[in-house]
Amino acid sequence: VDMKKINEIYRYKTEEYSMDATNKFNIYPEQIPHWLMDWIPGEGGFMIGNLQPGHMDFRFFTLGNLWSVIASLGTPRQNEAILNLFEAKWDDLVGDMPLKICYPVSDFVLLQPLVISQWRILAYTLVAGKLGLGSFHGLPCAW
């Protein structure tokens, strides 16, 4: 999801069921959280989760998005948008921690310090994603 896709979702018709439906996942525009419009940068984007039909999870999940870059699950443009999001929202996604698993944090997730090996996995995945796209620019040396 990026700003272009969010604007497109706001124009979707809901309750469309056919192979030609524009709104294939039956996303309701009311489900888009208000924080997302202010948070997502113009050149960034990320993969969203599907909780059930018509219910998307718009939180940013670090490991899933980085593995989608490494495994080339998205288009080159989508992969670049994920890494652009990291550059633009470095303080939100990294901040004082080595790397956050999810942004914004879920209410039901217990907040506990990450074991050193866990944050290293996220950091190595970020580096692998950047190397996979052939660019290592824009990563602050925070570690």
Automatic annotation (TrEMBL):
The lineage of its organism: Eukaryota, Viridiplantae, Streptophyta, Embryophyta, Tracheophyta. One of its GO terms (molecular function) is endo-alpha-N-acetylgalactosaminidase activity. This is Beta-fructofuranosidase. Keywords: Carbohydrate metabolism, Glycosidase, Hydrolase. The keyword Disulfide bond does not apply. One of its GO terms (biological process) is sucrose catabolic process. GO terms for cellular component: mitochondrion. The keyword Hydrolase applies. Coiled coil: none annotated.
